[in-house]
Description:
Layout: H1 9-19, H2 34-43, E1 47-51, H3 55-63, E2 68-71, H4 75-78, H5 90-103, E3 108-112, H6 122-136, E4 140-142, H7 148-156, E5 161-166, H8 172-175, H9 185-201, E6 205-209, H10 213-222, E7 227-230, E8 238-241, H11 243-246, H12 264-280, H13 295-315
Parallel strand pairs: 1-2, 1-8, 2-3, 3-4, 4-5, 5-6, 6-7, 7-8
Helix pairs in contact: 3-5, 5-6, 6-7, 9-10
The protein binds 3-methyl-2-oxobutanoic acid.
3-methyl-2-oxobutanoic acid (KIV) is lined by residues 51, 70, 72-74, 112, 164, 207, 209, 230, 240, 242.
Amino acid sequence: MSLTTFLPRSVERTIQKEAMPAGSTPDAPAKVTAVSLQEKKKLGQPIVAVTAYDYATARIVDEAGLDVVLVGDSLAMVMQGQENTLSITLDEMLLYTRGVRRAVRRALLVADMPFGSYHTGAADGVANAIRFLKEAGAEAVKIEGTRVELVERLVGAEIPVMGHIGLTPQSVHRMGGFKVQAKTLAAVELLREDALALERAGCFSLVLEGIPREAARLITDELKIPTIGIGAGPDCDGQILVLHDMMTMTFSPPAKFVRRYADVGAVLREALQAYKHDVEGRTFPSESESYHLSQEAKLLLAGVRERDEAAVAGGA
Ligand code: KIV
């Protein structure tokens, strides 16, 4: 029996409200913000993040109750079929982010700043980040690497920043490929210093990608801001995956850290083959899937057709 069984409804509602995050109601869970993610770390509650690039999937992600939707520049690879993330432009990222914005109500919407949009100096980075908030409705931006000055300038311009270190895909050529990083103790120490510098600069969270579990744990334990891991083991404060990887909508063997949660590719393929079968067999659309004239209009049409046929027969 619930402890609240004998309480008046009004008292029960107050207790329920106080047990939930600020701003939430029993029907509408609270909006996730850069600040509420930090609360989650304090409370030891895992953060659940995923990428989304379009209205339909972003809407499903938001309805599923995930905390963070990232419009990642991974879209260059999974949506556009590119080999790496370098080619995607700022205008393309803005376009995709706008679609996702219209879908997301509760999750925190983070936009990835693409390669070239912040590499030419902090002033360019701030100007481009402002476009994500103003023109696309993003609530935070993510940048790769240890760019302390840029992070400080962005935070100074009221833009929440998610950092991203370890395997940073925009550095693919410098790294010599998509390779696990921080594999020596010296490299772990450098990464730890980078993480602390980004926290001091004002990042509200930090993505740790493609690093040994032990390194991710060390950094997670030292930081006050939450870490969000991808290929960084289970000890991070949260996890992020690329939606297309986890749904089997990518076409090469997945990385070791990817767990396939569904085979959406197979579901789509089967559905499309069934559609092809039905159209070719003339069983789609059916009578009930067609629009119809009213009975009266049908009779009139039949009369017109009869007259036309009679005229053709008479003229022949
Ligand atoms: O672009 C992306 O999807 C990302 C995540 C994998 C963190 O940066």
